[in-house]
Amino acid sequence: MAADAGKSWDARLYDDKHAFVWKHGASLVELLEPRAGERILDLGCGTGHLTAQLAQVGAEVIGIDQDGAMIDEARRNYPQLRFEVADARDFSFPEPFDGVFSNAVLHWVRPPEAAVRCIRNVLKPGGRFVAEFGGQGNVGRIVDALRRLIGRYAGAGAERLLPAWYYPSIAEYTGLLEREGLEPTNAILFPRRTLLEGAAGLRNWVTMFVREGVAAIPGERREAFFSALEDELRNELWSEGAWYADYRRLRVVAVRTT
Ligand code: BEZ
Fold first, then answer.
1. I need a surface site. Which of 14, 15, 227, 248 has the fewest CB within 10 A?
2. Which backbone phi and psi does 114 adopt, to 5 degrees?
3. Please, what are the averages of pLDDT over each run of 10 residues along the chain (258 residues)?
4. Is 108's C-beta closer than 6 angstroms to any atom of ligand 1?
5. Is 249 in the pocket of ligand 1 (CB under 6 A)?
């Protein structure tokens, strides 16, 4: 997963501390039901673990990601598979695909129309699109607390440094799919409280995914910022010795009809 306009992720840290992202994606692979011989695109493949699962059945899979560091790591992890650097808003392939798969990526991609248009255009008629990403209300508690605190620690106006995540409702996203020529056949929005490992789980998550905001906080104020954030969220997101992120996932299946 990485589609944060042109910025590089720490691919090793991502694999080390955020493996839950792709581990949760295994059931999404089952939803796509890739078959031997099919051409499948893994959009926002990150370090390639789900690309490899998609390929296990004998499908011909290509993984794309905007982040070169992620692609380098994916190639190291799975040298037998094909990975390319590409922008989710602007990609094309000479040969069409039977399926496009995307896990935990599309909430980073704006404008969403551009991604859906590319997805539709690379699918064969009858080809399927299966995706999961953050839906309406995703990490709502964390976002609210960040909005309250970031200006206090990083200076006035620092709210603009928070990521502009895209968390649509079912109605909004299925409407978009229809307008762009994909027929939604299944959509579900569901909560998934997600364990953030270790006592530093919340700060690790924020450090990884809210990088510009954290970078804007002077080093000597960071500890105070993280303590204040943890104090704000402890009642709701800390339980039995661990932090949980208040994820809400949007899962969609759609088919290119024409
Ligand atoms: C998500 O998977 O919902 C997510 C991951 C990182 C940042 C924001 C949302």
1. 227
2. -65, -40
3. 52 67 81 97 97 97 97 98 98 98 97 98 98 98 97 96 98 98 98 95 96 97 98 97 97 96
4. no
5. no
